[in-house]
Each structure stands twice: as C-alpha cells, then as structure tokens.
UniProtKB/TrEMBL annotation:
Cellular-component GO terms for this entry: cytoplasm
Domain GH3 middle: 299-364
GO MF term set: acid-amino acid ligase activity
Record domain GH3 C-terminal: where: 390-495
Protein name: GH3 auxin-responsive promoter
Coiled-coil annotated spans: none
Origin species: Polaribacter butkevichii
Pfam family name, one: GH3_C
Length: 507
C-alpha cells in the first residue's frame, strides 16, 4: 500500500504546485462582486439596491455604507423568517437545501442558519485547499493511506418540509465526496447515531478495527472520545491502539487552552492543524507548519469585513453598533483585535458571526481567533478579552502544575455590594481557592493595564472555585449541547451565572 500513499501524496503535491499564490485582496473584491451579482434580484438585493452598488466606483465602500450590520436575531426577524414560510429568493437565490442548527454558547433554543448548495460547494472547495496544504507538512508517505476520524454531530439529519436540518459538522460529513468515504471513520452507520455518548461508545468498541492517521473535531469532545477509547481498552495512551496517528485537526475554538491536557493522552507528538468551520461557513484553515495561525478562505463564497474591537462599538448583549466602522482586508493591521463580519453564498449579509480575530500576517491573510464579542468582559471597565483569560489559565497551569480543561467567569456583585470576578475552573488543584485567586489576580494586573486600573476602582477582587471538569460537560448536556460544535460559555451574565451556580451546587 506504500505505492498508493506515494500516488496520493504526488497528486497533492502536483495540485499544490499548479495552484498559484492567491492575491487575497483581489480575491475578496471578486467574491463581493459575485455575491452582489448573484443576489441582486433577491428580495434583500432589491431592497438594498445591489444593482446600484455594483455600478459604484468603490463597491466595497458603497456596500459598507448602504447595508446595515446584522446578527442572527436581526437577520432572522427581518428576512430569514420568510424562508420558513416557504418564500424563495429572500436573501439568496432559490431556497436553502439545509439549515444548520446552532445554539452557540447561549440558551437551549437552536438558531436555524441557512446552508445553500453554493455554501456546500464552497465548504468542499475549502476542504480541498486544506487537503492540498498537507503537502507543506512533514508527513510520512503512509499517512496518506490511513483512516481519518471526524467526530462531529450526527449525520442523521432531520427532514423538515423541503430541507434537511442538523449541525454544520453533520451536514458537512453527510456531503463528503465519494472517494473519501473509504477513509472516513467512524463510518456512516455510527456517524448517524444521535446520542453522543452512545456514538462514542460504538467508536470505543470498534477502535481496534481502524488504523487512524488523523483526528478532526472540537478539542473538548475529541479529548473525551480519546479518554473513552483508552478506558475501554485499558491503555496508557491513544497511540497504543492507533500507532499511526500523526495529525489532529482542531476547530471551532482556540486549541491552546486544551494543548496540555490533549498531549497527556498521546504516546508521541502529533501535528496539530487549526481550522475554523462555523455554522455560517468554512472561515479559515492552517496551511503551513511554521505557524499556528489560519489563512482566511478568501476565494470560496465568503466576503470578510473587520470592525476594530473596542467597547464603544459593542452593545451590552454582544451585538455590534451600527456606527461601528468596518475595514476591508486591504486596510487591516497586524496584531489588532477585530470583530469578524461576513457576507456569504448562504445569504448572510454583513453578519456578526460573534468571533474576534487578529492578523498574524496580513499579506498571507492569516489570523488567530482571539475571543467572542459576548465573552468580552467589561462590566467594571476591565476590558478583559478571551485571549487574556486563556493566557491567565495557561499561567495557572504552569504555576500549579495542573491541567485546567474548562473555565467560566462572571463579573458578579456579592453580598458586600462590591463587584468581583468570579471564576469557576474545571481542574484538580491541591492549593486552596484563595491562593489560586491571588495568582490569577496578580497575572491579570501585569498582563492587562485596563484590568489593573479597574482593580483600583470598581472591581474589588477575584474569587475562584475549583470543580471537577465533568460538571462543565454535564452543564452542556443539560443545555442539549453535548458534542458537535459546542463552545463552552467563557463569560456569563449574572442571571445565567446564577443558573450555573445552582446547577453546580445541586447534589
């Protein structure tokens, strides 16, 4: 079979060689023009005069001036609700074949995000880009013969009138190319199992029959799956049963907070490749080994805009203010936090996806996810972003020689009338909560000047509660969000935090 591996690697190398270096700025201009041209006769395109925008001297500038920002709730209220009533050509031509169910990080009610055939094709094109970029990584020839474990949501999609519904990972897996099915694990039968725990049990039972070379999925749930396989087969680490595991493709959230606990499950190092697949589209993928940043998929059905991350531009609920300025890819700067805005072939227009990013290389259009707009903690002026929180967690892991797999935080007013940052950590730490709180507070004062100022004013202090990480998993299951594209709430408001604390304290 080494011959097959050489053939596959050769094809990937040839494809990569023949593809010219992308001019990302020009690619984005073309994507926006194609989006407007395709959707100009839709209800949305007619209402916002797409034909006039296409005739303007600066299409990007006119587009940003004429079209308001939307988030899911505002776009659904004004436009997408019509699709569910059977109307066609609403924000995109025709009707979507799928709806991606996404509860994100808030509440039990699923959002229903349109996924058109054009988006499926865009996701496939971005997937091909990811596969061809493997040529840039130092992988053995036999890797290209091994199975790939994709752990997402169920591929057993629900039929609803003239469309199918499911999470985006399930929709994507149900549309994998025919030539890939021989490599795809856990296979179609197991992948259709809706109950996540039952599906993972079947994976554990069948693990010894597969020769897994790559894993793909959300870090928290990949870890739980690996732990289940290790426990079921009484192993020391996952490489005892999958010795040829070489690659882990992460996605959905930043991998760094999970790095230490993930590596503890391995028998040898693996290549970690970050990807960014959201319910709204395939945003970015890592294409080279000398960085952990991801390259925006600038050619495949998504037009990107970037709003500078600043408290003045964000409403209390995490939505964006209409007067917030937006920048094109041509205007952004390196190492600056931006709120990500997308317009897509699924009919999302100037859409707040909810994530914040920073560019590590503007020319290569490479980014890192830095947080969520709803996870930006500024209740008492601390201006604490998720990347700063993650840095603090990494510091605690080093300071106390531990692994902190999950955490959440709230700026909460306590009985003394003062505001404290109340942290819950999913870990096993022998030191008491006060010692951990002091270390956390000291690090954030040093790392964030706004936090340091807030600590001299309205922010009284830090409180820490260490709990078993299992409580976080149970919370997600309670909120019907176990497995799939789950992202744990890093920041909660006081009402949600009260529900969380009640849940944690239940016997």
């Amino acid at each position: 079979m080494a011959i097959l591996g050489n053939i596959i690697k050769g094809i990937i190398h040839l494809t990569d060689t023949l593809s010219s270096e992308t001019n990302h700025i020009e690619a984005q201009k073309k994507v926006l023009k194609d989006l407007l041209e395709t959707a100009k006769e839709t209800q949305f395109g007619t209402h916002y005069h797409f034909k006039d925008i296409l005739l303007s001297k600066n299409i990007e500038q006119t587009f940003s001036q004429k079209i308001p920002y939307f988030d899911y709730h505002s776009l659904h209220k004004k436009w997408w609700h019509k699709i569910h009533k059977g109307e066609e050509n609403v924000t995109w031509v025709g009707s979507p074949s799928y709806f991606a169910l996404s509860s994100g990080t808030t509440g039990k009610t699923s959002k229903k995000i349109p996924v058109t055939d054009a988006m499926i094709n865009a996701i496939k094109s971005s997937g091909i880009k990811q596969v061809t970029s493997l040529n840039n990584f130092d992988l053995p020839v036999n890797f290209f013969e091994k199975d790939i474990m994709m752990l997402g949501s169920s591929t057993d999609l629900s039929e609803e009138e003239n469309h199918l519904e499911g999470e985006i990972s399930g929709i994507s897996a149900s549309n994998i190319p025919f030539w890939f099915k021989g490599y795809y694990k856990p296979g179609e039968e197991i992948a259709k199992i809706k109950d996540w725990d039952e599906r993972v049990q079947h994976i554990a039972e069948n693990a010894e029959n597969w020769d897994i070379g790559a894993l793909s999925g959300i870090p928290a749930w990949i870890e739980l799956m690996i732990q289940k396989v290790i426990e079921f087969h009484n192993l020391k680490h996952i490489h005892e049963i999958w010795p040829n595991l070489e690659v882990y493709t992460s996605g959905g959230v930043a991998f760094k907070p999970y790095e230490k606990s993930f590596k503890a499950l391995l028998g040898k190092p693996v290549t970690v490749i970050d990807t960014y697949l959201a319910s709204e589209g395939y945003i970015a993928t890592q294409v080279r080994p000398d960085t952990d940043a991801m390259q925006l998929n600038t050619e495949n059905g998504i037009y990107f805009e970037f709003v500078p991350m600043h408290p003045d531009y964000i409403n209390e609920d995490g939505s964006i203010k209409q007067n917030a300025p937006s920048l094109t890819l041509e205007q952004v700067e390196k190492n600056t936090d931006y709120i990500l805005i997308i317009s897509t072939v699924s009919g999302a227009w100037r859409y707040l996806i909810g994530d914040t990013i920073a560019f590590t290389d503007v020319a290569k259009a490479e980014i890192k996810i830095t947080g969520r707009t709803k996870f930006f903690l500024n209740t008492v002026g601390s201006q604490l972003s998720v990347n700063k929180m993650d840095d603090a967690i990494n510091h605690l892991e080093e300071e106390f020689s531990t692994k902190i797999k999950e955490y959440t935080i709230c700026a909460k007013r306590f009985e003394d009338g003062e505001f404290y940052h109340s942290w819950y950590l999913g870990a096993e730490i022998k030191e008491n909560n006060n010692q951990i709180a002091e270390a956390l507070d000291a690090f954030l004062k040093k790392a964030n000047k706004n936090y340091k100022v807030a600590r001299t004013k309205a922010l009284k202090g830090v409180k820490v509660t260490v709990i078993p990480v299992q409580k976080f998993h149970e919370w997600n299951a309670y909120n019907k969000k176990k497995g799939g594209q789950v992202k744990m709430e890093r920041v909660m408001n006081e009402k949600k935090f009260s529900d969380w604390e009640n849940f944690v304290n239940e016997i």
